[in-house]
Amino acid sequence: MAFTAKILLLGSGELGREFVISAKRLGCEVIACDSYAGAPAMQVADGFEIFSMLDAELLRAAIERHQPDYIVPEIEAIRTEVLADVEAQGRTVVPSARATIMTMNRDRIREVAAVELGLRTSRYRYAETLEEVLAGAEHTGLPCVIKPVMSSSGKGQSTVRSPDELERAWNYAVANMRGDRSRVIVEEFVDFDYEITLLTVRSRDGVSFCPPIGHRQERGDYQESWQPAPMTGHALAAAQDMARAVVDNLGGYGIFGVEFFVKGEDVIFSELSPRPHDTGMVTLISQDLSEFDLHARAILGLPVPEVQARGASASAVLLADRESADFRVEGLADALAAQEGHVDLRIFAKPTTRPYRRMGVTLALANDTDSARRIAADAAAKLRIIYEG
Ligand SMILES: Nc1ncnc2c1ncn2[C@@H]1O[C@H](COP(=O)(O)OP(=O)(O)OP(=O)(O)O)[C@@H](O)[C@H]1O
Ligand SMILES: NCC(=O)N[C@@H]1O[C@H](COP(=O)([O-])[O-])[C@@H](O)[C@H]1O
Ligand SMILES: [Mg+2]
Question: d(Cα 348, Cα 43) in Å, to the nearest integer?
Answer without folding.
Answer: 10
